[in-house]
Each structure stands twice: as C-alpha cells, then as structure tokens.
Amino acid sequence: MQLTVWTYEGPPHVGAMRVATAMEGVHYVLHAPQGDTYADLLFTMIERRDKRPPVTYTTFEARDLGTDTAALFQRTLKDAHDRFRPQAMLVGASCTAELIQDDPAGLAKAANLPVPVIPLELPSYQRKENWGAAETFYQIVRTLAGAVKERPGDEPATRRSGARPTCNILGPTALGFRHRDDVAEITRLLGEIGVDVNVVAPLGASPADIARLGAADFNVVLYPEIAGVAAKWLKRTFGQAFTTVVPIGHGATRDFVAEVRRLAGLPEAEVAVAAKPASNLPWFSRSVDSNYLTGKRVFVFGDATHALAAARVATEEFGFTLVGLGTYSREFARDIRAAAEGYGVEPLISDDYLDIEQAIVAAQPELVLGTQMERHIAKRLGIACAVISAPVHVQDYPARYSPQMGFEGANVLWDTWVRPLVMGLEEHLLGMFRDDFEFHDEAKPSHLGSGARIAAEPHADTAMAAAMAAKGAPADAGDAELISLGWLSEAEAELKKIPFFVRGKARRNTEKFAAERGLSEITVETLYDAKAHYGR
Amino acid sequence: MTVAPAAGCTDRAVLRERGQREVFCGLTGIVWLHRKIQDAFFLVVGSRTCAHLMQSAAGVMIFAEPRFATAVMEERDLAGLADANEELDRAVARLVERRPDIKMLFLVGSCPSEVIKLDLSRAAARLSERYRPDVRVLNYSGSGIETTFTQGEDRCLASLVPELPEAPADAPELLVVGTLADVVEDQFARLFSAMGLEGVRFLPPRKARDLPPVGPSARYLLAQPFLGETARALEERGAGRIAAPFPLGAEGTTLWLQAAADAFGIDPMRFRAATAAAEARAKRALETHRAALCGKSLFFFPDSQLEIPLARMLSRELGMQPTEVGTPYLHRQHLADELALLPDDVRLSEGQDVDRQLDRARAIRPDISVCGLGLANPLEAEGLATKWSIELLFTPIQGYEQAGDLAALFARPLARQTRLRV
Question: Which one-letter DSSP state was computed for residue A220?
Fold first, then answer.
C-alpha cells in the first residue's frame, strides 16, 4: 500500500473518460459502484463543460454483489445505447468492478449491439490516468480506423499533383492542459506551412472521423503521453510517419516546422522567412530588461512532455539555470533521465509530492515550473512559481486564448514565467537598500499592493517539518527559520540584509562552506568568504 | 407555536427508482469531519480512485496538510490477505510517527476494501491494542456500495457510539447529534442554556478525548436527517430520541428547540423568553428574500437527505413550490415531523435513475434545480437555474442566525440570472 494524500494522476478509467468526453458520438459504459460519478465534476466544473460527460455508470450496490451484477451491466449497456444512440461504445470496469470480474467485453459481445463496442482493459492497480487515455485512444483507433489504405502515405511524391499534403493531429483530450488552444495554434501554423489537417483526434472527432485517419500523409503527435501508442500503430498499419518534436517554445516550434516540412515532402523554408521570428520571445529575451533573468535557478516538474519542453525553453530561451528536472510520468522516465544527464542535474521520477517538496527544498530554486501541486509547495516556501503541466485547477482552463504551443504559445510562456519574478530594477534596489520597509520577506508581492503576508497555518508548517524529518530531509522550510548551528548573531543579522529570494541559497552555501572547512562558528567573515567562494 | 394537524406528505407514495446515481460516496464526509474533530485522522483504505475523489472533493484544502490520507492498494495487496494487513500496519505506523498529535484514527473502508473483504474492524482492534493509550483506532465504511455522501458521517458517528463513556443513571442529559458548524453549535449551546438546559453535549465532539457520555437516562436530538445508524447505536446504549423536525429556518429551529424543551419539562414562558428575540430576527432576515423566492418552483435531485427538511423550510417560510423532492434515502421515522409539514402535492422520490429524473426536470422546467456539481453546469446550459447542493453541507445553514443566509443561497442564482445581460 502506498500512503497518498495527493495524486498527480487519477485512475486509468478517468483517462478513458477524458477520451470519450473529447469525442463526439461515443458513449462509455463503466461498470462502477455508486460514487464513481465524482469524476463527472472534473469535466463540468474544472473544465466548465456545458454537457455531462458521455459516461453511464452501472452503479452497483452492496446488495447487488450477491446477485447478478453482470445482468445489471448488460441492462445498463442496452439502456445507454437506446437512449443516446451513439455511433460507437466503450465498455470497461473501474477499480472496484475489476475485482468482481464480470468481463464487460464478453457481456458486451453477447448484447449484440448494432454499433461497434470497444472493450477496455485498464488495470487500475498498476496503471494511471494518462496510460488509460493512451490505451483507450489506441483501442479506438485500432477498432475504427479503416483497415486498408489506398496508398502508403510515406510517399508524398505520389500525391495528386496540386493537392496539399494532409496530416492528423493526435493527442488532445478533454481535461487536457491548454489542449483547446494548442490545437487551434498548431492547426493555423500547419496551414501557413501548406499542410491541411485531415482529422484532429480524440478532441472533437467522431467514430466516422477516426475511420478516416488513414487518409492523411502523416501524423502530428502533440501529446506523446496520450497519442504515442496510437501513432506507432498507425505507422505500422498505414506507413504514416509521425512528428517527434513537441512544438513548445520558440526553438522547438522551429524544429517542429522543419520536421513537418520534411514529413510532408515540402522544400526547406527560405532563410528569409526564418529571419523574422514569428514570436516576440526572442526579442523580449534579448532586451536589456531581461538581463537579470540570466542564471536564475529554475526547478521543473510535470508530465514528461511539458517538463522536457520547459527545460529546453528555460535554459535556451530564458537563460535560466536548470537545477531540477522531474516527472510523475513513469512511462517516460528514460527520456527524463537522459535529458537530466544532459543538463547535469539529478532526475526525479516520482509521484509522491513529499519527494518533490524535498527536492525543491534541496535545490533552492528561485522559480518553480510545475503543476498545481508545485504551485502550493512554492507558495509555502515563498518561491515564485508558474504552472506548465496538468494536474491544474480551474484557473488554468482560461477564457482567453492561451496556448503553450507554437509561436503564440512562446509569447504566453514568456509572460507567464516572468510575471511571478521580482522585476530586475526592484531586485537591484533591494540590494542597495537592504531593509526596505515595503518589500521584505513578510511583505506581500508588490503586484498585490502593500501589507503583510498572511502566515500559513502554523500546524501545517510543523507537520511539514515533521514530514520532512521523517523522510530524512533537513527540517527546513526554505527560509522560514535559521538553523542556529554556529551562526553568530552579527553574521545572522548580516544574512538578513541579503534579499530574501536569494537568502536561503546564501545561508546554505555558507553552512556548507563552514562544514567543509570544519568551522564551528559562522562569522560575518565566513559569510563573505563563502560568497566569494561560490560567486552569487 | 402549534403545528397544523398531520397531513402533508405523511401517507404520500414515494417513487423508488434504481439506475445510475449521480451522487458522492460516503468517503466525502471526511472532508468536513476531519475539520470538526480536531485531533482525528481519517485513513481511507482504497484505490487510486478513492484518493482522486478525496482530492477532487477537498479541492484546495488538500494542501493544508489535511488530517486524511488514502492507503492506495496495489496489485501485491490484492494477492493475499495476510500481506494486506501487514501493509496496513506499516502504513499506520508511518502515519502515527509522522503525526504525533493524532489521538483518534479512523480506518475508513472503501468499495475495493469491502469487495476483497479486508477486515478493517479486526485491523482497528489490533492497532488499538498496539497504540493505546495514545491513539484510539476505529473503523467504519464510507464505500459507495454501502453509503451515499452524508451517510459516511452517519457510519463514522455510529462507530464512535460504543466508545462513549457510560452516563450516570440519575442525571438526564441532552445530546445533540450531527456535525454542525462551530458557530451554529455555540449558538445552540447558548439558547439551551438560556432556557435552563445546562450541560448539553454535542456529537461529534471537537476533541477526540472529549466524548459525551450516554446511557439510559440520556435523550438525544438529531441535528441532521441522515443519522439512522447513529440513532440505532445510541438506542442500543439506552438513549431515547426526541422527535422533531430539523433546525432549518425560523420555524424549524423553534420546533426543534421546543421538542427538546418539552422533553426536559422546560417552562413554556422561559422557552419563549430564551428564543423570541432570535426567532423574530430570523423572520426579519427571511423577509428580505421572500419577494425574490415566493412562488418559485423547486426541484431537488437526491444528494444528502437534507432535501425534505429544506423543501419544507423553503415552502413554508419563503413560499417556494417544491415539485419533485428526491432523496437518496428516506428514513420515515426520523422525517415524520418533516413529512407532515410538506405541501401535499409534492412528488417524493427515493433513489435515482439520473437520466429519467433529468427527463422529469426538463418537462417541469423548475425555477431552481438543486443538484450536484456533475449536473449543475449542463443544466445551466439548458437554461435552468441551479443551486449546487454540496454548498448546503459546507455552509452554516442551521439555526436562527443562519436562516437568512440559507434563503440567500437560493436567492443568489435567481438574482444572478436577472442581473446578467450577456
């Protein structure tokens, strides 16, 4: 058993719901007990959907267990078909139904419905949400994508002359982080290159659309976590190549464009076209006000796709220093490990938020890029933070256009990541006027007006410290309290004059410096010796 | 105050439906119970789905180091039972070590743990042995196959009843049962004391060590309508129930307090003196919302078992017109006083087949539909104003001082509809 408070991913049947809800004309019948309908509100509340997800739950109760839950499943299936008249149905079991072993696949076959019924095997006790979404999409594609294609698609040269190349966009789902706007942005970008979109799936696709997947020349995989398996099958079956670059960030978008041109059999872009950047990020990043961003320490955590993309953007396009890289997507652990090695940081593959919290405390970043969970960790530690990946809360399903992908996505990243940081000039003034009366650890961030920060629940801090101690980490919430270990009072006072957002780093460097040299007390001298030794 | 002779819905037939239910399971009760009992911890033994539910239901509170968690069963745990018990012991040991402030630990059963017949009651007994006297370990089931939403609280309180100390035989005491907001509890304590009822105790208590005594001399008054099991457990200990409608609205609160006063032989004059001012205040507060709500039709989807008392309050005190009142479970005896006060043209339904019920709601097109979060936005998109029901559990609504707030919860969606010009 794993002791869990927070879970980065739901169970796999929630992944299946994300695919079913994204599509049109599909209905999912889920063998599940009363209460599992809680998942509906993720779609209706967090994503603010105006329709119920197309999911019917059998809702078995304790009294049914002795009797025929299988008959209940068949009745529910038939009623759902008669009521909703879908073009295709999905059937499966939630974690509890998996234990009573009713075999939805066999039962659905026996029901002999006039539409395709796709059984889903989703092992709830081993796998999680993204895996469930990937498996569901794969099964749908396998079942519904027509078996034969007129021409193999890997020879664009054989296309009817004059016809534009076409691709499918694979991976966007319901409850996806910014999927709505990513699809719009990438569709527009492909159009500019000269590529038409054949089908977007699962988001907005009907079973009839899935049947047309094979007609495209190649596939664009926006979210490998969800579309990777299906894309590989399409490649095996129809010879459709698929994109490997995820277009998040200015550089990755350019690489993506080059890859698409290659797959579509289009000529290399004119150099002149590339001369004028399509996003504002490069100039914003080169303008002098961004100088202060150089070498800022950033910790990145999220799903593998977004974490890898963010690491590249943070280092190459913002000039940050990467001090941590991790993911909760175990299926992509290898990619993260390889990337982390390239950046010279320790990879973190975990879905236990206490591990992540510990890693953030140890890395002492100035900015955290992560999920909703890291947002809260950062808030508690008083570190700036921006959200780059699911799981996210309702405010990250915004009304305004906010893609992460493409050239407009790069603009969005720029604004989102810079905003939580202290402005450059402010940073310098803080160095000049050390005990700034309006701006110190206790003060609220300047964009929230003046006044004091509201302290976190005291018991939360002690619990947190206890949790850290239990994990063998230093019981230290960032900058919350000084470890009295040998700090003389003058040195402690001097430390407090250092701007708070780099103070934790200074303190740890000084203590490390003292420990390495066997100094039993830390003086003002030690502080400055350490500063000279470590640089900033 | 006299109640009209029993008529209402006392003998009205109830529509009983089975099918898909759009409701929470009993685990959700943990979200408010863990804030109420300040030194209790709730450990759900379940699957990733259970953890995901708790996270979704608790929203942002999950980050305040909440006093609940899920021991997520993995494949190894399903293989053999002995192993599962060892795993559980290990999880509890880690927990107790991490949170030394915990005095009471609830092992909460879920659908998966019930289906594989993991005996959590024996585990609780075993662990209680190990951790006494520091931590008391109890067990109840909050599984969806057995409990709906607020029934989780019922099971939790029922598991507490055997732990209550024995009350002395010669001192009759009043025990108020059901989680109330602290502010409401304090108001009720003051009102009881003003009418001369001293030493009224509440279940659940705010501290695990502060369990109220119970015995044949005790009388109990239900503050919530969903406490069937708890009531049965209290009666096994010899306590007697004081029948009353529930303390919602000015009238409901007066009738509820009055039932207690009568049971303890409080002088009617003293009762009036203690409650008159607050009751008048509540009526004034209700009056401000009356114009907006009078004549508006209501439809209750089943959720918490609060539906019938709410329908009674909204119809009698604000002039609203309940059409269908759905409840997940109807306890005839505990709701007898409520049913008698309901208008006699209401359709009562117990259980749910959500698609059929939605068809009925669409046919009626009520002015306000009271429903869960899975249905609210889809109904709004169809042009039906909704009030999400979960707010009625997370907001102080009982008693005189909250009567106006309760009315405001229903007035707000209608006011919003008239204000918006987009």
Answer: E
Scan for tokens 């953007």, then name that residue: A313
Distance CA(A7)–CA(B53), nearest Å, equals 10
Strand partners, A91: A29, A119
The pair of three-digit structure tokens given for residue A182, joined into one six-digit string: 């990513």
Q: What is the predicted pLDDT for the residue at A464?
A: 42
Query: DSSP letters along B75-94, please?
Result: HHHHH-HHHHHHHHHHHHHH
| pLDDT over 80 (residue A471) | no
Question: What's the pLDDT tens digit per position in A368-424?
Answer: 999 999 998 998 888 889 999 999 999 999 999 999 999 999 999 999 999 988 765
Distance CA A77, CA A55 (A): 11
- Put simply, the answer to whether A35 touches B373 (Cβ < 8 Å) is no
Dist CA A181 CA B405 (whole Å): 40
Cα of first residue to Cα of last residue in chain B, in angstroms, is 47
Q: What percent of chain A has a predicted confidence (pLDDT) above 90? A: 68
**Structure confidence by residue, pLDDT tens digits, A56-82:** 999 999 888 877 899 999 999 999 999
Distance between CA atoms of residues B316 and B7, nearest Å: 14
CB-nearest to B98 from A64, A76, A466 is: A466
Catalytic one of A36, A102, A209, A289 = A289
- The beta-carbon neighbor of A6 closest among B23, B55, B90 is B55
Cis bond upstream, residue A403 (ω within 30): no
- Where does residue B348 fall: left (phi above 0), alpha (psi -120 to 50 degrees), or beta otherwise? beta
CA atoms within 13 A on the CB side of A14: 27
Cβ B48–A124 below 8 Å, yes or no? Answer: yes
In whole angstroms, how far apart are CA A243 and each of A134, A203, A210, A235, A258? 17, 18, 19, 11, 10
Q: Is A289 marked active-site?
A: yes
